[in-house]
Protein: Isoprenyl transferase
Amino acid sequence: MMNELHHLAIIMDGNGRWAKTKSLARIKGHEAGAKVVETVSEFCIKNGIANLTLYAFSTENWKRPESEVNFLLNLLKKFIIKKREIFIKNEIKFKAIGDISVFSQDLQSEISALQNLTATYKKLNFNLALNYGSRDEIIRAAKKVIQKGDELNEQNLSANLDSADSGDVDLLIRTGGEIRLSNFMLWQASYAELAFTNTFWPDFSEDELAEIVENFKIKNRRFGGL
Structure:
């Protein structure tokens, strides 16, 4: 029996190193990587994968040079504006997960506008992790449970996570050759299958994604059992 893939999560790593191998500025790697997002989203729709979560900007990314951080945030804004029609055309529900309150009001407005425009779409739940850290998410979720006066248990904490609508992660992929989770979806990926590839994100192809997904489908997922 084949495993069903409901929630795919990806750590999009390797943009800067991809650019370096081509003697380009790091920002060129981020530009190239942004183009792959559309390919992966289309793959999910074609293959009935209901939920996609992409790690775009972590709580630790603020440590990067100011010029690169500013470029990434401007690129994010351009992505949201430029891809708006694609989200609408393909009925993709957009949601930002993470603490976006630190972003400029202009960027927050663009994020909120796209979330509102696509709120009723059902072909794909597209979660973009922005100023996201899993430990921060878990702490914020716990505070929400306590503020509501609910019991702090596994079910209630899960229900108050940023990505609660998408459920647990089935398959988590990291590109770029590093073998670590980097504070991404730690709660949701407790029993996820993990796949690491040396391919830099800008070179990550639909064919490679399809191969990883096919390998996932035949895995023996025991969830702690036999």
